[in-house]
Every structure is written in C-alpha cells, then in structure tokens.
Amino acid sequence: MPPVGSINKKAIFALFLLHFSGDFYLSFVKPLLPVLAVKFTLSLTRVGLIGGVSMLTAFFIQPIFGYLADYYRPKTIALIGLLIGAVCIPFVGIAAGYGFALVFVGLGSIGSAMYHPSAAGMVSLYTGRHAGLSMSLFGLGGTLAFTIGPLFLTGYVTLFSLKRLPYAALLGLLVFPLLMGLIPSKQEAKKKAHNFFSSLKDNLGDVWRPILLIWAMAFTRALLEQATLTFIPVLFAAEGYSLVSIGTVISLFTVGGSISSLVCGHLVDRVGFRPIYFFSFALAPFCVYLFIHSPGRLVYAFSFFSGFVLLATLFPAVALAQKVAPKSRAFVSSIIMGLTMGIGGILMPVIGWLADVFGIRPVLTGIALIPLGMLVLVRCLPDPK
Q1: Residues contacting residue 170 through CB under 8 Å, at least 6 positions apart
Q2: 5: pLDDT confidence band, cut at 50, 70 and 90?
Q3: CA 116/CA 361 separation, integer angstroms
Q4: Using an 8 Å Cβ cutoff, are 97 and 40 in contact?
Q5: The pLDDT of residue 25
Q6: What's the whole-number average pLDDT of the chain?
Q7: Which residues have a Cβ under 8 Å from the Cβ of 8 and sit 6 or more positions away?
C-alpha cells in the first residue's frame, strides 16, 4: 500500500488509460464534421447540430451517471461507457444518412457521459496530498486522446476511406480487458442512496454558492472551447486546408491543453487556484483571437497557445469542486465537466445559425471576449486551504 499522503500510481495510471481510451474515440467527432458536411451536403446549422448532439449526450446527462457512481459501482459504469463509445462512434463511418450519423454520435457520446464522472470520482480516492496533480494526470489522458485521436482519424480516413472506420473499434475492444484488471475494484464504502433531489440537498446544500461560481467560470471556458473546435474545422476546410492540416490544428490545440493541464495541476497544489484562473481568463481571449485571424502557418502556433491558456483551468476546476464538496465527488465532477460542456453543446446549433448569418470569424471573435468579463469573479473563488 502506498504511504499515507502519496499518490497510488497504479490506480491513477489505470484511470488515466481509461480516460485516454474513451476520449480517443470521442475525439473523432470534430474532425469528422467537414467530411460529413461534404458527404451529406450540410449547412452550418446542421453541422452545429451534430456537434450539439455530441456535447448534449456526452456531457449534459453526466450528472445522472455522476449521481449513480456516488452510490453504486463506478468501475462498472465507467467500463460499460468506454465499450459503448469504442463501438458506436467508429460506425459513423458507415452511416447511411444524416439521421444515422446523429444516432451513432449520440450513442457513442452517452458512453462518454458514463465514464467521465465515474472515473473522475474515483481519482480522488488515490490522490493523497496531491489532488490537483492527480486530477491533472487523469485529465492528461483525455487531452492526449484529443491530441492523438484527430491525427489518427484524419490519417486513417485519408488512407483507408471513411467506410472502413468501424475497424478502429478493435483498439477499444483490445484495451477493455486490460482495464478490467488494472482499475482497482475495491473502493470506499458506498453511502445509503437517497433520491436525486435529496442527494443534492445533503451534499451541496452548504456549498452551492461556490460550486455555482466554479460552474459559471467553467461554462465560460467550455463555451469558447467548443465553439472554436466545432467551427474552426469547417472554416479552414472552406479556405482550402487539407483534412490532415485540420487534424493537426486540432491536435496542436489539445497538445497545448495537455501541457498546461499538467503544469497548472501541479501549480495549484503550490500557489492555489486563483492565480491559475487569472492567467487563463486574462490571456485566452487574445490567443483565441489571434488563432482565428492568423494567416498561413501562424495558425498552428496560435492553435497551440490557445489550447494552453484555455484548458489551463479544465481539470483544476474539477479538483477545486471536489475539495469544496467532498461528499459527492462524482456528482460535482459531472457538473463541472459535463453540465458545462452539455449546455455549451446545446448552444452549438444556435452559434451555427449565427455563423450562417454573420460569418464564423465575427461570431467566434465575440465569444472570445466573454472570459474578460469573468475576471472580476476570480477573487471570489473559494480557497480550499
């Protein structure tokens, strides 16, 4: 058994691998949008609907599975979710029509809603004194998946064609039994289950205000991230970028996020959460603006910097919420990760409609300014110390 206060490295690695494996398939959705737009002759509104369905089912319903994971079997819920995503999302490649593509994306994204809060809730059982670092190591699995996944998807489709994408499900089927053995089965004793609203009152009744503040700031970050990653591929495809170039742009964005989530996860254990939030929210609007307006190869550099500053608070926000509400770790994880992204997903068709009317760049520029207005709230964030 690891010494008291140290990280259980085997458990954190197992949860890292679970997060990576699940998000590897979820990362296919965004770079597939330009391909599906051409295949089915879609408007930007309908493209936004695919992104919205993905975000709605992957994130908006996470609180349901977060509640279940707090009271029942988080390992089982997480592994079933991984299996659903690994099988359903690659089958978008053989969708016979726009409706079937929506169904496959929706089902695969429900799998994501299952494993995210379940696994995130388990992380805190094995962190010791390093909650911020451990959560960022777990988060690194997801950001690495969103780095590698788009490159894999675009290269695979370019070499083998879209209709052979279902064969990619074999990777998930191979890693599934490995994770069954690696993820610890013994978890803390489960609390007596209450109904959903009683659980909210018991677990969040005294801390709902700071949780609401953390959620609001997480939603601002998520809205800008999702709008950028949904419509930048379509914009760049229309301007002549190749599918591989678009995948590279998305991957560089998540490489920046991978590095910052790890660095900032370590820093919050040392300097606290507020400085990291101020750094992220002050710089993100400028980096995103330069990303969407830069010509030529500069777009690759600013894609990286945009991801670095924008994703700096992604997993520290989850760690902060779990410290504020330790009675319901999986549920608050689902609120901060899932509900923010889910509501952002609901708004993607609206943003797509605005982009049809005003253009993608003006709409994304307006959204990029929102984090500046949230800077005044950084000093109100709770201090776990």
Answers
A1: none
A2: low
A3: 32
A4: yes
A5: 92
A6: 82
A7: 2, 126, 128, 184
The residue to which tokens 């494996």 are assigned: 21
Contacts of 201 (CB under 8 A, 6+ apart): none
As a whole number of angstroms, the distance between CA 13 and CA 160 comes to: 32
Q: Which two tokens stand for residue 66?
A: 């977060």
DSSP letter for 206, please: T
247-260 burial by CB neighbour count: b if 16+ within 10 A, else e?
bbbbbbbbbbbbbb
Q: Which of 89, 86, 257 is nearest to 174 (CA)?
A: 86
In sequence order, which ranges of 169-238 are alpha helices (DSSP H)? 169-182, 196-204, 208-238
CA distances from 312 to 14, 19, 46, 308 (A): 23, 18, 31, 6
Determine contact, residues 150/212, Cβ cutoff 8 Å: no
CA 229 to chain centre: 11
| Burial grade of 128 (CB within 10 A; 0-12, 13-18, 19 or more) | middle
383 pLDDT above the threshold of 90: no
Q: Is the pTM of this model over 0.90?
A: no
Write the single-letter amino acid at 121. G
What was the pLDDT predicted at 51? 75
What does the alpha-carbon distance between residue 163 and residue 160 come to, in Å, rounded to a whole number? 8
DSSP secondary structure string, 251-268?
HHHHHHHHHHHHHHHHHH
Residues 123-127: contacts with CB under 8 Å, at least 24 apart: 123/12, 123/15, 124/322, 124/326, 124/329, 125/11, 125/187, 125/188, 126/7, 126/8, 126/11, 126/12, 126/15, 126/184, 127/7, 127/12
Please name the residue that has the structure tokens 């591989």: 244
pLDDT grade for 132, boundaries at 50, 70 and 90: low
Q: Convert the pLDDT of each residue in 260-319 to its tens digit.
A: 877 887 788 788 888 989 999 999 999 999 998 887 788 899 999 999 999 888 878 888
Distance CA 284, CA 276 (A): 12
- Both tokens of residue 276? 């990291």
